[in-house]
Design a protein that fits this description.
Layout (H helix, E strand, L loop, with lengths): L5 E6 L1 H4 L8 H16 L3 E6 L2 H9 L8 H25 L4 E6 L1 H5 L1 H16 L3 E6 L13 H12 L3 E6 L20 E3 L3 H6 L12 H12 L4 E6 L5 H6 L6 E4 L7 H7 L6 E5 L1 H10 L8 E5 L7 E5 L5 E6 L4 H7 L4 H8 L13 E3 L10
Parallel strand pairs: 1-2, 1-5, 2-4, 3-4, 5-7, 6-8, 9-11
Antiparallel strand pairs: 7-8, 9-10, 11-12, 12-13
Helix pairs in contact: 2-4, 3-4, 7-9
The structure holds adenosine-5'-diphosphate (ADP) and the ligand N[C@@H](CCC(=O)OP(=O)(O)O)C(=O)O.
Length: 377
């Protein structure tokens, strides 16, 4: 661990909020102190911190978590300011600045905004600032929310090609079953990121303040592995956890990043959470995509679903309905439907000169073996 130079540290709601009773200042102090000590040892730290809604509820005097989105957003707006104040207070002790970065799904979907976010975060790190990232809850609408910060932390790890993602939570690590439901569950100390068996072990949300549960952490580890990032899920209650990890102590669950490491642009593509359409492929097309990583031509498509536009993300399925790949489509849905099953020659004759004979160029296509099981279309 002491070789790892860039760490993304995600601190979950269940830890930050004293079981929903407002922010735990003492605990935040302890994590910040460790982050400052790691910085002294040459580790770059990026924090992904939840807790805005819980902090807002405390400030507003609300006793129970609202369910209406507008109230959650209002609480997050008030609470995010409170949260940053606490981090700032402790960082100042160490003479370090914190830089607030609030992201929405849209910021990581749009290539230009994605590159901007990357440039800003890298600049903050070069300046010695500790970025403190959260979802921009005040504006993110229901359909486009990350929802849990595990996913956000994994995408940030990809964006920055972090060496290590540490997910701090209220459990010692990943167990072979939810320890709240199964007191005899065993802690897994080393696993392989992306192993489908792990998803079956991870249950839903255990705490009443967290939003993802263990499954989003297991999927986050698989996502993080695309940039070669290892993940550790461990308990934030463990004293000096970050420093002990840095010293090489085996704590929590270590996820080996054994998935194929994707190139930067493909990583951005694979990180897209939602697709706008679906293309059904014949067996031949599915095979050349899988075996050769070829571009997708209209001749291999049997049907198109959805009302996508040129440049949107679509999912490609084989005749059995399994995901083959996903990519950015060159034509809108109507134009695709007109060209389904037709060879490039016929298309050229019927529609005149075509600029992009392929529906999805291979540079804009990412195969789904490197996709996360249940990653969501
Ligand atoms: N296999 C498992 N191993 C460990 N924890 C699990 C497992 N399955 C479900 N959980 C639950 O996931 C919870 C952590 O997720 P969550 O409450 O969302 O925390 P956070 O706010 O830190 O993201 C734990 O409290 C635990 O009850
Ligand atoms: N963005 C939200 C946190 C979302 C959330 O609870 O995430 P998690 O810590 O992964 O369970 C907030 O700051 O309240």
């Amino acid at each position: 661990m002491n070789q790892a130079r860039r760490w993304v540290v995600k601190i979950g709601s269940s830890l930050l909020t004293n079981g929903g009773q407002g922010l735990d200042h003492g605990a935040i102090h302890a994590w910040v102190r460790q982050c400052l000590a790691l910085r002294q040892k040459g580790v770059e730290i990026v924090l992904v911190s939840s807790g805005a809604v819980a902090a807002g509820m405390e400030r507003l005097g609300w006793k129970s978590r609202p369910t209406a989105l507008n109230q959650l957003q209002a609480a997050a707006s008030v609470g995010q300011a409170a949260l940053i104040q606490v981090y700032e207070e402790w960082l100042r002790e160490g003479g370090v600045h914190g830089g607030q970065v609030l992201l929405t799904h849209e910021d990581l979907r749009d290539r230009r905004r994605y590159l901007n976010a990357s440039a800003t975060l890298r600049t903050l790190l070069e300046m010695g600032v500790i970025p403190i990232i959260n979802e921009n809850d005040a504006v993110a609408s229901e359909e486009i929310r990350f929802g849990d910060n595990d996913t956000l932390a994994a995408l940030v790890s990809n964006l920055l090609e972090a060496d290590l993602l540490v997910i701090l939570t209220d459990q010692t690590g990943l167990y072979d079953a939810d320890p709240r439901q199964h007191p005899d569950a065993r802690l897994l100390s080393e696993v392989t990121a992306g192993d489908p068996a792990l998803e079956r072990m991870a249950g839903g949300v255990g705490s009443h303040v967290g939003s993802g549960g263990m499954i989003t952490k297991v999927r986050a580890a698989a996502r993080a592995a695309r940039s070669g990032t290892a993940t550790i899920v461990a308990s934030g209650h463990e004293p000096d956890l970050l420093l002990r990890l840095h010293r090489g102590e085996a704590l929590g669950t270590y996820f080996h990043p054994r998935l194929a490491r994707l190139a930067a642009r493909k990583r951005w593509l694979a990180g897209q959470l939602r697709a706008t359409g679906t293309l059904h492929l014949d067996a031949g097309a599915a095979q050349v995509l899988r075996k050769k990583g070829s571009s997708l031509l209209p001749v291999g498509v049997t049907a198109a679903e959805g009302s996508f536009q040129r440049g949107d993300l679509v999912v490609c399925l084989d005749p059995e309905g399994r995901e083959v790949a996903r990519g950015l489509v060159n034509l809108d849905a109507q134009m695709v439907r007109q060209r389904i099953g037709k060879s490039s020659k016929v298309i050229a004759e019927e529609f005149g000169e075509v600029e992009d004979p392929e529906l999805i160029h291979r540079d804009n296509l990412v195969l789904s073996e490197t996709e996360i099981p249940g990653g969501g279309a």
